Amino acid sequence: MDIFRTLAGGGAHFDKKRFQNDLKIFGGAADEQASTSTSGSAASVGKTGTSKRKRTAADLGTNGEKSGSANGAKLIVPDGLDFFGSAAKTKSTTSAVEREDRQSKKDGKRKADEESDAESGIDSNDERDEISDAAPVTKATLSTFLKQNKIKLKGTDVPLPMASWSELETRFHVQPWLRTNLDKWGWGVPTAIQKGAMPVLLANRDLLAGAPTGSGKTLAFLLPLIHHLRAPSKKENFRAVIVSPTRELAQQIYDQLRRLSEGRNFRICVLTKTSDATAISKASSSDASKRKKYDVLITTPLRLVHAIEKEEVDLSHVRHLVLDEADRLLEDGFLQQTDSILAACSHPHLRKALFSATLPAGVEEMAKTFMIDECRVIIGNKDSATESVSQELQFVGSEDGKLHALRSLIQEGGLKPPVLLFVQSIERAKDLFHELVYDGLHVDVIHSERPKLQREGVISAFKRGDVWVLICTELMARGIDFKGVQLVINYDFPQSVQSYIHRIGRTGRAGRKGRAITYFTKEDAGHLKTVVNVMRQSGCEVPEWMVGLKGPGKKERKKLKARAPERKGIRTSAASSVGRREANRRKEMVAASKRRKVEGTGEGTPKGKGGE
Ligand SMILES: Nc1ncnc2c1ncn2[C@@H]1O[C@H](COP(=O)(O)OP(=O)(O)OP(=O)(O)O)[C@@H](O)[C@H]1O
């Protein structure tokens, strides 16, 4: 299988003919997809943290591949990661190594399971070996089902989880067309979070939900929401509100909601900083006869708060409020806005649902202050990275070492597109872009200073495969679903453990495998332990000396989160390799091409500073 087929399997399209020269940059690009996981050790001295999972995946590749992709591309899904049931239909032959691996994992997880039982109030003595994944859950099979699906439940009278989509109709009386749309869009089997969280929301209970990145949380809140709305309404405005921290994520939620509700004319309004003002003015027109009614409002917090303050929106009919990336929305910076939104949603029967891959204890405490008799559904270990990503830490010495490491990776053929490259600031994103654009990569950059149209253009280009390496800031760290991303590079060390988990979660989505490399210098060493802990928890090997490191204190963690460390600038050293004059000539060519593009399409080089 070549790289193009691999990418197409992930939803990105690559024009092989058009990029044939560029392909050479990637050396081993025609390798099997499985080689991504084994090529990990090539990069350089000082790198660590190859996943245990890699061994299992490689074994599976020869001993029992599980094929799950629609286009025939092989999808190797290690046990325990098969959120999407893609391997369920394939009979697998299990290697001795795999069996051994599984047994040791079982032993290691026993303690965690016991803790899970304690939380769920379940007696482990009713344990059974295995139950059919599709049979409806009963009180007798609950314990085994929860263990099999790594679900932890907490709360009073938490509704039993749902084992299969068929229960939507038989148990919850969900309209059949919703099931039709699930099948149509390839959401064939519910994921663990969908099994655990949907019954809670369908029963109209408040919910706090945590599940790994890329495990299907969006659908877990959208389907119950649409079920409760039943049909478009011309009587009430805004019956449901979904808040997301970025407009890219808001747009993505909108796209998924459109698919899920296909064939029904739900009126959905996306309201972001720069979104079409007419949408909201139509909704708030003083002439009631002209007022347009929306069923669902998907919004970023700031834009909604402005609309509330200007009395452009009336949220008194809202029955369902979803905070996606809830921990971010309850952090300083967004907290005040989230508070205002909560206050404006004044309906006495308002139901609240909070979702995230990370839910720090402080956030949970805060959530409890405004939720009523809530249920808590957690998949796997709380605040952990998705296990489908093989994580590596690479010591690069100094800031300059990062560029060397990156270029070595390119030369070794380890930079398999599409790649997301995270840096800590807009300034650094721009600098790195100007550096890499001369390396012949199809590279672009996205951050909050780029106008909406440009941001949309970059995302489409990345999805199409026209952009191979996308340099980004924290803006893209959460929620964004690029299925085909092969590699995430933390060029700059993340400022919090949550940031690390969300950033690397842009790869390894929907049960696919992914790879994440985090560069660190000695300046970052004090914060290494936080990442090491996440790596160990998700089954990655880390050297003993790292395990023994002291973690940063609370004060220091707070300091890092509040302010990115000062870093030496990313120097333009392209001049040394291709010659300064040549570099300038190419720079001008790129600038001219961008100017032409701006004239033609409204896209171009970003200007200004600040933001994510
Ligand atoms: N039941 C399902 N079967 C197959 N694919 C699914 C299913 N549910 C969701 N997906 C797909 O999985 C991908 C990831 O889902 P989603 O974006 O909701 O993840 P998430 O858990 O919200 O991740 P993040 O924490 O990064 O926001 C999406 O492409 C979605 O369409």
TrEMBL record:
Annotated localization: Nucleus, Nucleolus
Source organism of the structure: Pseudozyma hubeiensis (strain SY62) (Yeast)
Pfam family, one: Helicase_C
Protein name per its UniProtKB record: RNA helicase
Gene Ontology cellular-component annotations: cytosol; nucleolus
Domain Helicase C-terminal: 388-550
A GO biological process held by the record: maturation of SSU-rRNA
EC number: 3.6.4.13
Annotated stretches, region: Disordered: 30-72, 90-135, 551-612
Keyword Transmembrane helix recorded: no
Domain of life: Eukaryota
InterPro entries per UniProt: DDX52/Rok1_DEADc, DEAD/DEAH_box_helicase_dom, DEAD_box_RNA_helicase, Helicase_ATP-bd, Helicase_C-like, P-loop_NTPase, RNA-helicase_DEAD-box_CS
